[in-house]
Specification:
The chain is built from seven helices and no strands. With 199 residues, the protein is mostly helical. Helix 1 packs antiparallel against helix 2 and helix 5 runs antiparallel to helix 6. The chain has one domain: Four Helix Bundle (Hemerythrin (Met), subunit A) (Up-down Bundle).
Length: 199
């Protein structure tokens, strides 16, 4: 297994650890989960760059890399449901999961029937990047709010900060959900031959 694929596997291994630290309530758990998430996200940035620079692009990597991204971001959205982070967290997670199941199904059909490994397109990459930014913002906002509470900041100030950060988090998460829909539709159109084919 080459280095880029090892980094992708590392991202998969970090995913359950990230989710555990996210939902397990201990001091500064949002900060710990944030650092793990950022570390895992950096492997996504590095594996592609290394693979292209060193000529190590493989079908295995093309298939596993977006799958690892889906695992990481989906874990965050499921954790947000449990912690009630973001307005309409259940619907956001539903949209994300619906898109990912559809895309994964098409990729599976393409690889088994057409022998083709479909790599993530620019819209899929944009969706993933925005999801990661939204998740990082959400975790940072939650940790910042907890620190203010620990410092015994006045309730009015704490509530004001919490409300503003909560709205900003919800907006970013919903934008990422909308990008999920857009990228999913484009993916479906680009690969309609695999959807419409019959044996």
């Amino acid at each position: 297994m080459n280095l880029p694929n090892k980094l992708t596997v590392l991202r998969i291994i970090l995913t359950p650890i990230f989710m555990l630290t996210l939902v397990w309530n201990f001091p500064f758990h949002y900060l710990v989960s944030l650092l793990i998430f950022i570390g895992a996200s950096l492997t996504d940035l590095l594996d592609g760059k290394i693979a292209r620079k060193r000529g190590l692009v493989t079908d295995f990597g093309k298939f596993l890399d977006p799958l690892a991204d889906k695992m990481l971001t989906t874990a965050a959205f499921l954790g947000f449901i449990a912690l009630d982070i973001g307005y309409g967290a259940v619907w956001i997670a539903f949209i994300v999961l619906l898109r990912e199941f559809m895309v994964s199904s098409i990729r599976l059909i393409a690889s088994t029937s057409g022998g083709k490994v479909i790599a993530a397109n620019i819209w899929g990459k944009l969706k993933t990047v925005f999801q990661m930014v939204a998740i990082i913002f959400a975790l940072t906002a939650k940790q910042f709010t907890e620190i203010l509470a620990m410092l015994s900041v006045k309730a009015e100030i704490l509530n004001a900060f919490s409300s503003v950060l909560g709205v900003a988090t919800s907006v970013l998460l919903w934008i990422s959900a909308i990008l999920c829909v857009i990228s999913g539709v484009i993916y479906l159109i680009d690969n309609k031959d695999f959807v419409s084919q019959t044996k």
